Amino acid sequence: MLQDSQAANQFIDKIIEEKNLQDLDAEVHKQLHNDLMRRLEDRINHAIINSLNNKQATQLEHLIDTQQIDKIQSFLKKEGINVNGIIAGTMSKFYSDYLGA
Amino acid sequence: MSTITAPRPSSIDTNLPGSEYVHEGRLKIVIAGLDKNVRNEAARTANDVLKDKTSGGGNFLSFLRNIKDRQFTEAGRDIRSFGRRLRYGTLGQEYYQNKYRQEKEKEIVERGDFKDRYGEDYESQITMRFAHEFDDLVHTEAGERRTKLDFETNPDGTTNEKGVKLKENLFGLIKEATLGGFDDESGNLNEESFNEEKKRVITESANDGLTEDYIGASMLWADNILQIVNHSRAAILSQNITDEAEKTAAIENMFENTDIILGEARLGARGEVKKTAAERISEKLSKCDWLNEETVATSAAVALTAASFAVKRGASRLAASIAVPGVTGGVWAAKREYVKLDEERTDIARKMATGEVDMQSLSGRTAELAKTVYETRSASELKDQISVLYNDDGELRIDDADHFKEAISIIAEIQARNRLSDQKDINLISYSSVEMVEKERFELDLALAKSKTDIQKLLSSSSDTELKAFGLGDETIAELKKPDANILNVIMEPQIEGAQGVMEAAIERLQIGEEANDEESINARDRLFNKMRRSEVMKAFLKGTAIGSFLGLFAQEVVTSVEAAAGESTSSLLIENQGATKESWLRSVLDHGNGALDHGNYEYVANANPENTILVNDETKIVLPDGFTIEPSADGTEAILSGNGVNIEHLKLTSQGTLTDESLNQLHEAGFSTEVSANQISEDVDRQVAGESARDFIDNHSDEAVTVKRDFWYDNDTTSIYEGSELDLQDPVIQSDGSINISISGIKESGTHAGNYAELKELAKNGELKIALSLSKGTQSEVFLFNVDENGNAIIPSDSPCTDLFNKGENGQLSFDGQYTEVVQVHGIDENGITHISPFATNIGSNLNSFDDTVTDKVTYNSTTYTLNLTENVPGTEVEAKTIIPSALPLNTRRGLEYTDANKATPIESYYFSNIAEDRRRIWAENRSPRLQEKPNTLLNTGEELKWYRDELKQFDEEYIKEIDGHLKGNEDVLRRLDSNITAEVCISVAAAEDSESIYDTLVQYAQQDTESQKSTMFFLNIHWMERLESDPEQMSKIQKTFTEIEQAMSDFPNLNIVGFETVWPDELIQSLHDVNDLYDESTKRLYDTAALATEQAIRKGHRTNRAGAIIINSDVGATNLGHNLIRNFVKEANRHPRIDVFSTIDRDEQSGLPTASGFRLSAYAATGGSLYLSDMSININGAIDQLIAAARQGDSLHQSADQNDNRQTNNDTQEEPHNNEQAQVENNAPANNQPSTSGAPQQLALSSGTTNNPYQLAITQALANINPNDELDEITAQKPNGEGGTIYADFAYNNRKINGYFYFTGYDNDMDHLIFEPHNNPGQTEFIIGREKALSLIGSGRIIKHLQR
């Protein structure tokens, strides 16, 4: 889950920060942060899966179903999926969606 | 007396079976009728049966035709088919429909369940859903209903006698089963017996009319009574109640806390919202922690850098374009055949969502398209809805169940819209204007977050009584009170199997609407769009057909007339050649009358040909008759079957790629019969594991591990003569094939203990001498055994998992990572399967207790093969005719690039090639394709040459082939479009770190080509960068931007068929290169080979014919002045000059002065060995390919004499400019006896500066000498300048003589309105002049000429 990623948290924080919401109630800030994180995660997953062909998608599902979560990244790399590029692109789009950059 | 009660939620013993049916402290017995499902299922299958009976066979017309042709057997078959359709399809349709429906209902009821259709656990999913308290779990809009049985009274106050009776029946059954009434001799419940009794009780209750008000006629139902029995039995057991009376009392007590839930369920009621594979996996991915911090951190850094780029640039286009930048696989797969309309729909949706257009302002087709756009709600409106939840003081206005439900619904809808928008990349929320998007989006998110926070605060601070007032049940309240509970999630997304949360319900509502055909639902809009698309595509098809027919007919007549006039074996309407093998369509009509086109001459049956097998995906194959193809859409949800005039669209595919029933019906109706065979295919997928334990390693390879018992050790104390040291167990050695050899020198005759070897050899010979590998002390009873041969060598094969157990140390020697390497004698296997061994010698390994391993997982796929036979003529189908139909029917007038007419009389064109070393010529000559070896000037068959080339590449470098195949696999969706209509393949090498500013503009130039050229072109992009750049954020952001720009271009220009792949150049490769610029050649080589093998694959898969040719066009990023007709001109010139293989543009790049694009025939590239023999050339790869082709075409072979080569070499030494011997001829003047000739192959012309004894040079010189230098040559017939300041190839007439040759541009005349040229090799001697206007018009026209080698 993306919630555990310090970099992702900082990324979302940066978006909220650039919206100049210093006076935001801490709990609302936390909720907003969580909501945005979930949306970002949805978009990343969507982008990753869209980059796979049917067979690769089946293999990925197999890895998830058999709890081989730690193998997912190496699998994607082996299959030539540019994980970094896809995630960076999704994050860039997300960033621009919220900040109009 | 002990009692049992249904446990409270807080004290649920989850070990007790059936506790999932305890809600709010009460046990729920559920019976849900499935009658409607039975009826629907029966009706559906009955329709299928009827369709089968009325499909296939001939029709009345074919009957008449067969009678006419005296084909009585076929006629009889036709009349039977006709009669069958009359019987089942018209007169008796209703009767048979009812009959089959009833039969099917009976079949389903007798079968007793829907497990084969809905899975093993469908009953528990229904009963758990019905047992739950949430109303949302029962889909009333789909026809479901649920009632809690009130035992005492009816709604009208009368006694509910039926209810009481039903309760007695059910409780009686449960009590009997709990007390052991259906136990076997071991005291266990005999489920078969119990189920039989349960069926009897419920059926009798139904017959007595006790259930009809609640669950229907009880044809079939789902219940949880067995689970309830198991629960009550377990409860009694857990309380150690043994007394029968106490048991009975306990059961009665349980019944006091039990509800009976009755209802009707709809299986698959939400079938329309089946999750796609992508949605399913996405959901699973979101629940697991698969991303590591490093990846996220790196990506975040790049994203922020890219974002800062956008800020600096201040351009909204880039901001909008930073979409998904991955260039591999599925991201690009979104582009497809109907993409234009899709794109338009997306565009209008985006514009409507951002307030750029107003529905009211639209008209015509755009308005129609707008109606298919998903229903959106404005961000402001949604935000206002949230504000309604607050009073004027900003406090939540929730004080009762209605308000609470309203609040939750609002939150759920907004979140559902967000989630679907994110997961499907669609717009479900609109904004007032483009400028307001970010502001309104964020304000909505903020308002949502605030409302959720407030509601959570409210719930956490409310008492149980208050929570109940909000409509929450005990169970939900208990969940809310748990310490770590995510309060809103308990309500919105409960993690209860089979239970649907508020969120899921909201998503479903958006997907399918409140009712089955809600016009505002996503599905309804999709249906509307598909309908519209069908209509639009058909209109376009008809329009194109009408124009194409006329033009095609006209064009064909012109072409065939010209060919006929030129003496080809062709007859046209105007010119008839006796014995012609080809004739125009009009000529055919003239000669044969209508009879030639009579349908009676056609074959009506076309069987599937296994060679024409189309892979829909890895799991599904479709075998079609020749001439047909099926093309799945990029997203795999639909397919089009086409060929021979047939076009069947919108064949629906399941998520597994199989054809739906609806699609099969479509095919049947179109005259196809279908045979379906399904197999399950298991595939081994290897994965590398590091740091594995010995135990895991052995378990992973248990089929190869052997359980052993060491009976004794041979040592000094044994009577054996063998000692460990004597055997001299050597260190393992890795061999060239990857196997590992462990040698025992003591077995060798030359060993110091030679006396032992004979007996050891005997053991080895008998297979009793082995090497045993033990991974650890703890696992030494399980070893891996390998035979020792008579020479003392034990070979561990390269494919053995044990090769992973050896690693090279610092000194380069292999060492064993495990515990022991033993030389053992094997005595045999005992009855327990244990192998008895006795070790001779032992080596101690590294004992790492951590091993690398290659584990093979079994991945299972369902493989389905459809065989489609055309059994009935399809209206409009062009099927094989007995009479050969003229080659150019109006609808198919386009000529392929390649001809097979090898006997064309025109002399072959040839090319100049300069200083090519003899050894290289020798290699080229030896390694060109057999066709070229045999006849250098032959016209090539693209498919044949590509197949040969692939085999050559494979032999040469299998790893390279794998790399290229990987590129193809990553682009398999777009490559499905590489059919025979693709005539050009444009290859662009993109240096990702350098081309970010220019790649978009380059692609724009291709997007400005005419539409037909775009569609008939496949673009291959190799995006590459140096690995070393990846540590530089600035470079990475440039690379990122390049991807973004490409993605944006793809989005902006959906007609471009783009195949993309990435290459990251490792540092070691760069270090090995002479020049970093060589990376361009490496990239280009991969591009050409990817294009070549993609085409070969398309032919192999039946997407493309062998004869269909293509021209490879090479273009640099940043090239300017490509012109709008570039591709069309390349293809046109390739068609016009079938014997010329290499082409380039006249126009030059403004900066480099090089041709803006160059190209060559794919068949020639393949036949000459493509990229295989181009290394170490002093020129770039394109120049090298040109020379390679030139050499091959000029018959350069080992058979030529050294003298000839030497002479040519001498002449070539000072030659820099290119020539073409045929073009350099001066017709009429060139002495026939001076024609060079070598082995029948075309000879090259060797011109050199100052040489006057060359006949061609003399001829040109003489011809030009007669020209008045001041005369303008009005008779110029085909001047082809290649740029001001460069060389032109001129072809002109003067004094009734045709002259052609190469000339330098020397400048303008005094008036600057003419360009002056002088002949090549005779500077200053003779000039001729071309009018400036004419020259400039030619230069700027982008016309293509034969390539001029430099």
In summary, what is this structure?
The complex is a heterodimer of chains A (101) and B (1350). By secondary structure, chain A is mostly helical.
Which helices and strands appear, and what pairs or packs with what?
The complex is a heterodimer of chains A (101) and B (1350).
Chain A: H1 6-18, H2 26-50, H3 54-65, H4 72-78, H5 83-99
Helix pairs in contact in A: 1-2, 2-5
Chain B: E1 22-23, E2 26-33, H1 35-54, H2 60-68, H3 72-91, H4 93-111, H5 115-118, H6 122-131, E3 145-148, H7 161-178, H8 191-207, H9 212-215, E4 221-223, H10 225-238, H11 244-256, E5 258-264, H12 277-286, H13 293-313, H14 316-321, H15 339-353, H16 364-370, E6 377-378, H17 379-388, H18 401-424, E7 429-430, H19 437-461, H20 464-469, H21 474-481, H22 487-492, H23 502-512, H24 522-565, E8 570-571, E9 582-583, H25 585-592, E10 608-615, E11 620-625, E12 629-632, E13 638-643, E14 646-652, H26 661-669, E15 672-692, H27 694-700, E16 706-710, H28 724-727, E17 733-734, E18 740-743, H29 757-765, E19 769-774, E20 782-787, E21 793-796, E22 806-808, E23 814-816, E24 820-829, E25 835-844, E26 851-870, H30 918-927, H31 930-934, H32 942-956, H33 958-970, H34 972-975, E27 984-991, H35 999-1007, H36 1011-1015, E28 1017-1026, H37 1033-1052, E29 1057-1065, H38 1067-1072, H39 1078-1100, E30 1111-1116, H40 1126-1136, E31 1142-1145, E32 1157-1161, H41 1162-1167, H42 1181-1193, H43 1202-1212, H44 1255-1265, E33 1280-1281, E34 1287-1294, E35 1297-1308, E36 1314-1319, ...
Parallel strand pairs in B: 2-5, 6-7, 8-9, 11-26, 16-25, 27-28, 27-30, 28-29
Antiparallel strand pairs in B: 1-2, 2-4, 3-5, 10-11, 12-13, 13-14, 15-26, 16-20, 17-18, 18-21, 19-20, 19-24, 22-23, 24-25, 30-32, 31-32, 31-38, 33-34, 34-35, 35-36, 36-37
